[in-house]
Structure formats: structure tokens, C-alpha cells
Amino acid sequence: MKNLTLKNIALTIFAVLALCLGVWTNNQLKFDFITLDEQKHSWSEMQGKWIVVNYFAEWCAPCLREIPELNHFNQLNQADIYMFGMSFDQLERGKLIDLQQKYDIQFPLIQSAVTLPWSQRPTSLPTTFIIGADGEVKKQLKGEQSADKLLKTIRALQSL
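That's the TlpA family protein disulfide reductase sequence above. Prediction below.
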């Protein structure tokens, strides 16, 4: 009888530990994208904030011209707006790091994505997606953007 009780206690402890490990593992694997600094993010963790995602490519002259403006926008709005860049060419990590350094990209770059809030890749570059605080795509902007234009667009969308 005593052995049966100890066995039940041991099995219960093992089951609780296995459950805790399962929950922890699930939380660690639950992400929508990884940035170049190897941070895992989910779109849902950013709900309540506005998000700007800019698609670019090295072969796209307007994309390269707008990088200083995107850097400026990111510096001005880090507290209430998230800014990310995403290579249209889906470069591997090493090439993406080289590109970030070569063009002094100062905002986080998405290295790989599992899910995106929009349905398909853009058909032209540069393209910038603005995602509202509710997690929905509010606007898709084509062409070069300035920090001022991005901020004005977001403020206008926020007032709707």
C-alpha cells in the first residue's frame, strides 16, 4: 500500500513536470517571425502598437534612397510604433547582415517569417505595410516614403 502511494505521488510529480515542460516548449516555439538579431516575435505580442514593415531590395534604387528616412522615422517613433524591414529577395542571414551594414540600416530586419498579416508579397518596390493597433493591415504604400509622410499617414489612420 505504501509503495502504491509513493508510486502515485511520483507519477503525479512526473506528469506535472511534463505538463510544465510542454507549456514552456510551446511558448518558446510560438512565433511569427525572427529578426536578424535572432529575436522571436509574434504579431499578437505587438497588438496595441502600430507596425511599419518596409520591403526593400539592394537592386532597387528607390529602396536604397529611402533608408535614411526610414532610419529617421524609426529613431523618432520607437516608443509607440514598431519599424521592421524585410528583404524582397529573402536573403540568407549572412547576406542580410552584410546588406544591413553596407547601407547602415538601423531598424530591425526580418530574417525569416512564418506568418505575415498580409496575404502576398508586394509586386513592386519599395512597398511599405502599415499595420494598425488591432493587428490588421491598414494601408499599403508603394514607392519611396519619408519619415514625415509615414507619420502623417499613421496619424490620419489612427484618427479614423
